[in-house]
Amino acid sequence: MDPSHLFSLKAQNVLITGATRGIGAACAIALAEAGASIVLVQRHAVEPNYATYNALKALFANDDPANQRIVEIVHCDLDNLEEVKGVFNRALDVAPGKKIDILVNCAGIQRRAPAVDFGETEWDEVLNINLKSVWLLSQAAGRHMVPRREGKIINFCSLLTFQGGLTVPAYAAAKGALGQLTKALANEWSKDNVQVNGICPGYIKTDMNEKLLEDPVRLRQISERIPAGRWGEPRDFAGPVVFLASRASEYVCGELLVVDGGWMGR
Asked: Which residues cross the membrane (predicted)?
């Protein structure tokens, strides 16, 4: 088959969380470069970050006028579960053809503290954003995609889907559960041509890992264990996300694709 056909996302609509910066921003731009329209989920803020939105607008400005691609923002605080319950339908309202073909759950937060000191408020915040909001968005997507017998859901998991980590009990619990949720949804929806898969980043140079990057001892320990010899960059997720969003992965179901420079293999 023609690879350009296999990986094309022309006429596809993507709903993506966590795309204001880092991995999410790189994924949103890669999906748009493959031909998709993009709906961004962003928090309410006095001074919201429009960098990804502006980059996509600039990209789409070069489109053929006959190609009706769009980039839109729907505002939602993913810690507010009542807001989350309505955001998928609001995205449908602004998406071309009132359809969402691909859901990318990339938003996530991290809170660090020894387990004996980890606060209940922080626990709930991490679990709500990293797990429950993903469940609610995926359920809404399933209700839309299953009857249409077409769709892709891509969840951003973690190395801590497999490992326990240190001083991150809530994050490890959420990402471990997210891996199982990905498989559970794939078990139900694969027969309806809705593929649900996960991407598990390794150690990546993003805001979430600032404390590790600033700690010379931990930076050395981690770096020495990565076979690729470097930390990952957001750009390293462009290929994996387009693959899982495209026709090229139609028989890939319930997979947790590790993108870690070889860390797990070590």
From this structure: none
- Look at the chain and report how many structural domains it folds into: 1
The label of the residue with tokens 């789409």 reads 60
Read off the amino acid at residue 16: I
CATH number of the domain encompassing residue 116: 3.40.50.720
Cα–Cα nearest to 194, from 259, 145, 262: 145
Helix (H) / strand (E) element for 38: namely strand 37-42
Q: Are 25 and 106 in contact (CB under 8 A)?
A: no
Structural domain contains residue 220? no
- The per-residue pLDDT for range 98-139, each reduced to its tens digit, is 999 999 999 999 999 999 999 999 999 999 999 999 999 999
Chain mean pLDDT for the chain:
95
As a whole number of Å, the end-to-end CA separation of the chain is: 35
Length of the chain: 266
Structural domain for 244, as ranges: 3-204+234-259
Decide if 229 is inside a domain.
no
pTM, 2 dp: 0.96
Cα distances (Å, whole numbers) of residue 28 to 56, 151, 168, 225 = 8, 17, 27, 30
Q: Which of 50, 171, 203, 251 is catalytic?
A: 171
